[in-house]
């Protein structure tokens, strides 16, 4: 059966083209002149979900307006195919009567051979994709027009096993027999098929200074202070990180599911330390962004599915991953996903290691040593792949090299990855080598630059494309002049990048196909090199295409006298000579960045032409970054504020333009008053190894570097003084300790620091070589020390030492009194238990407690119990004598006794105007709420008040609690039943709101809250009110009865809590809370089952000894039981009497009762009246 989709003659569709066009598929290049024109009619098996698919080739790329016109006609252009072609979906029933003007060259069937990766085309199934002898696992990408569920169902109906799916990317991982691959390719809705992704393999003071990260955070008072504070970095690696104090207070591993906890998995510890380690233990191992937070994930690529949520909800802009993804795996579905993420979330930047396969042959065609980056994901256009340098800026031979499979420049940038010192498991350090180490160094430096941009631009987060362009354009050029396939654009230079950000030396524009934009750049005098880069975040490419670039922008620079300069381009031809050749000027049609440089440019106005050479997915935003390298020398290490050790070597670093003359390096101990030459460096060097003579001490140190008549020196002074050695603990006692160290020559004092919430915090300054600190033995922590010298010299902290919770070397000292309580707030029928927690009592002690207003008023028990007869605040005093000395603790208002309500209990909120300082109710807002329960007089079911929460406008998932004071249920018999009733009024704001009302109860302040009622969603209310809502009448209120309060809760300190969880709904009101004996009643119950008969009830004497008098007055005569229980609730005495109307006196013999506190109860019918008595 033929289904006619387009009713139009083929002859009218195509313009006459006099030149051959090619389609660049991964499976091979297609000359379209050799491919037959396709009919726009679809047979039934070509349609899926009412769509058919074709490839439309254009003579000229359609504009955005033309693409929209085609879409209205039923033809949607999908992914771009180089050159000038698109996959297209065509809706069944589309009727295109006039297609002239679209410049269509040809319409081609989507041949199954266009849908496969190169490895599947050649039958090279990688080992990780082989399931068994017959089956393999492949990733299927389907066209975005079709319904996801229908695709899954269709694949399952064809007996394919669905292993995984990523619907947002239109990807399904399936298990399939190798012999059935052709039938999979033949499915009309399938766009591309590739083998399963390979499993990932894991691939600093020298780094901080080579990256110039150290210049972005200095100890100098007026230096830069950018360490990434407030930023979060997502790291994917080999497992749980730590324990290590360099991560203290700045790491979140809650989403590291199925992560290894093995001590041998140190890769993630090392990478994380390089990104953001604080250097708390060893300051020389400090990471780049040592103020940022780290979110730790496992190494699964599925974690990238979480990135949009992390970006939008957690403000995560930077990710770092030092794992492989195959050897030059090409532009995969994962690559496409990451490029698309960066395009959709403009501040997002993914940073990867380039790989450690620099000697391998990954099939690029030039043999070993080329085209061997380990991905995959790191070959993306919009991501950053990082190569590995030594601390002196030389390329490590193992560092993977470009090009990417389609000839693009990789790596993008380089950083230090050789012999990098960073954290490993259990507060240790180690030196590792690899691009796994250079990647986090670059990610951390980028975080610092984000921090700087945000500060300079009033809180604005930068565009990732702008930041990547700045980083590439300001890199230290290494290897061949300009970009190359070994170093990319060079070594990251945070100092130069910061200068561009500070000077706002960038602009942006947008361009569409065929357009040309002109920008003027004013170049000042004395510039040694002008660098201009045009960078754009490109659209994700089709995984079917062999060329990843979608939107191709070209640039040309014209100087003030009319000379023109093209950008630098590399030759990606697959032979060693071409790949190792210098860049030449020309048109770049592969990369999404172009750099133009001019040595010794004339001052004046330059004209930059930016042209939309081929913009199939326009309009395209782009950034222009310009950098003027002046004829200056900028010293970047030391940058000022450092404390350098004498008798050690240090690596001085600086920035300077290219030249042929050597450098001379000078040192001053007196802030530049006089200088001493310390050596020379060759013209191509930007570092000098300096040994500081022993005994040098100064706080006014500076470095000056000269070349010819040009010189540069430190703006801020640094210090030279030795670090204390032999740091240790002399003794640790229960309440204090002594830390000591060896003296430092010419030191005038020492600062002792202790690990704080995130960093090492200063504790004290001493002039001796030891310090006694009032730190309890029970505290586990870390200590360090640094020297102070003349001229305000401040040295580097010593490597920290750990203090465990063990005591040693201690002679007994005075006690250190302390205590705790079981519950500091309870009702008036509750008896409190206190616990002694005194230090230095191992040899024995005597203790005395004082409880003003309590019963007893004093005690010598170690854990006494005290009761109070009236609500209020009560002081507690404890005195301890351990035979060596005496200590005491006096805490005012330590115990709070709340008024206790009785059953039957009713609350209509009529007696209060607020819940603030309310003894009977407590209101609290949790989990991000912006409201809380308040007393409202706006609406009520009975009376004029109710408890109200302004839920209208609250954030989703807000939690709000309303908690009662104590209610005495101990008077109830175990066999009795009780009911808790309450009334509420509520509306939704829209039908989808699903809000929760929960009711919790507890036996006492010591016990957990137990949930006993849940009402949510439509059960809470089906009614909707879009506007701010207030109940109008009784019909708006709902009554709830709870009968599941069991006898285990019949205690003297029972409480109830109401909790509302928000989901965007409307206001909530609560009223008429009623707790009573018996079955549920819709009426308010204010008395017990038997109305109370006793008018007065008293005990005397109280305290009593041998005899207790019980007097009560009642309305009528009645059988009465007198019950006496101890504080544990155990019945110790009872007596049955027939009481008379009026006054009654009962005398009980209490001689057999042990001294203590007892409860006396009068039981008549369904009620109980109790009082407390003390027996002496």
Offer a concise description of the structure.
This protein is mainly β and 1176 residues long.
Structural class: mainly beta
Corresponding CATH architecture of the largest domain:
3-Layer(aba) Sandwich
Instruction: Give the number of domains.
Output: 8
Instruction: Bin the helical content.
Output: under 10%
> What percent strand?
35-45%
CATH homologous superfamily descriptor of the largest domain: Peptidase S8/S53 domain
Count the helices. How many?
A: 12
Distance between the ends: 105 Å
CATH topology of the largest domain: Rossmann fold
Shape: globular
List the helices and strands and how they pair.
Blueprint: E1 2-3, E2 22-25, E3 28-31, E4 42-43, E5 51-58, H1 64-72, E6 75-81, E7 85-91, E8 104-109, H2 118-121, E9 135-142, H3 148-157, E10 161-166, E11 171-177, H4 181-185, E12 190-195, H5 205-210, E13 232-237, E14 251-252, H6 267-276, E15 293-298, H7 307-314, E16 316-321, H8 333-344, E17 349-353, E18 384-389, E19 413-416, E20 420-424, E21 428-432, H9 435-456, H10 464-473, H11 494-503, E22 506-511, E23 516-523, E24 527-535, E25 552-558, E26 564-565, E27 568-569, H12 576-579, E28 584-585, E29 593-599, E30 604-614, E31 620-630, E32 634-637, E33 643-644, E34 649-655, E35 663-668, E36 676-681, E37 687-691, E38 698-707, E39 710-713, E40 718-720, E41 728-732, E42 737-740, E43 749-755, E44 760-766, E45 770-773, E46 781-789, E47 793-794, E48 801-803, E49 819-821, E50 825-827, E51 831-836, E52 846-850, E53 858-859, E54 865-867, E55 872-881, E56 886-898, E57 901-902, E58 905-907, E59 921-926, E60 934-936, E61 946-949, E62 959-964, E63 967-968, E64 978-986, E65 996-1002, E66 1010-1016, E67 1038-1042, E68 1055-1061, ...
Parallel strand pairs: 13-15, 13-16, 14-15, 16-17, 17-18, 18-19, 33-40, 50-56, 57-63
Antiparallel strand pairs: 1-4, 2-3, 5-7, 5-8, 6-7, 9-11, 9-12, 10-11, 20-21, 22-31, 23-30, 24-29, 24-31, 25-26, 25-30, 27-28, 32-34, 34-37, 35-36, 35-38, 38-39, 38-40, 41-42, 42-45, 43-44, 43-46, 46-47, 46-48, 49-51, 51-54, 52-53, 52-55, 55-56, 58-69, 59-62, 60-61, 61-69, 62-68, 64-67, 64-69, ...
